[in-house]
Amino acid sequence: MKGVEIITGLQTSDDTLKQTLSLAEKMGKIPSRSVDSPGFLANRLLIPYINEAIICLETVSLTNYRMLTQGYR
To answer: Of 5, 14, 48, 69, which is the most buried if we count CB atoms within 10 A?
Structure first.
């Protein structure tokens, strides 16, 4: 994964942030700055996929489930 989320807190110094951004770039990453809060970038991207997976599971019939887990008989 090319992206890396840099999350700063109340006590994060400017020097720490600068060094972290520099390290991420040296590692070939694309840094994204965020403040410390619920719902980090990775979660905001991941949640729609998890929701879609749940919807898929909810719509699978018992027959389809048996075919997927036990094979076609």
So the answer is: 5
